[in-house]
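Reminder: ligand-aware prediction takes two inputs, not one.
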Amino acid sequence: MADCKVKLSIRGGSGLSIQDYSYCPQLLKHKMDGVRFHLIPEYFVTGRIVHENIETIIAAHLEGKEAKVISDAELETIYTTGEYVRAGDAESALFEPDKKPITFIPKVLTAFKSMLESDVFGNIQASEAYYEGALVDPETFETNKQLEDEGVLFSGKVDLISDIDGHKVITDFKTCKSALKQNEADSSTQLTMYSYMYIIEHKEIANHVGLAYMTKHVRDDTQYDYLRSIRHFEHYVHLYRNLLSLGKDVSRSIDEDDYPKKGMLADCRDKFNKLCNYHPMCFQSQYTKDELKEFESHLKEKTDGEEL
Ligand code: SF4
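Here is what comes back for the chain with iron/sulfur cluster:
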């Protein structure tokens, strides 16, 4: 196989992801160019804390011990000593470094513990299992030669693998603003991809999937549920075709240093209505000299491979 030119992860975030290019090719370009920020959007930190604590809770559960859930006071310390910015409000995330502890995290983790203790996940085999590889055609089970030669790889980390009632089940954990519906588990590309990656890696059927969600509200109680679904051959074929076309587009963009302007551009025009931290790079004319200077001060030196 040729050297890896690009490794696209299934999740969004600070690494290069398939979502980046689908959402906005310019976003992938900025990340390819190695643009990183000193300031970290709050939702990255929140996601990381939730995932790390969920891992701790699962490990304790498997050892038959009581897991400690992070407290409001500990969160207060994290959120008041780190370089975090709020995101999701009307203001540009980058220029509103208002630090705020996220009080819903202990509620979310307590909800997760309840799910775990109710045994809905069955017999747990592994958590945070990482997969990486070239694209494999589900009809022939052969690696796609073109993408392989071009060095386009895909990767993903499965939150949980377990045996439930004789089925291997691939589960993803989600925190969200409101309760998820069954169709979200049925149509989740992420779950299809994880399921397919598991099948390729282990040569074993794992077409049962699950979405465990917990809602995050500062005031309301957390709602949670575990939605199960099944993947069929057609799902994998559909996924394969989409990834093939996306992988070819990304590869061409990198080779020609030409990233189409599409995706969220229309929503980006108003800088006060944008979550994307890269906004000042795409729309410099909307910023004053001082704001651009402030933006520059939040950029990290290019450090190859480093992720926030
Ligand atoms: S500001 Fe908009 S166009 Fe620029 S990278 Fe972000 S999403 Fe893409």
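Residues 88-97, 303-308 have pLDDT under 50 and may be disordered. The CA atoms of residues 122 and 164 lie 5 Å apart. We will return to this case in the review session.
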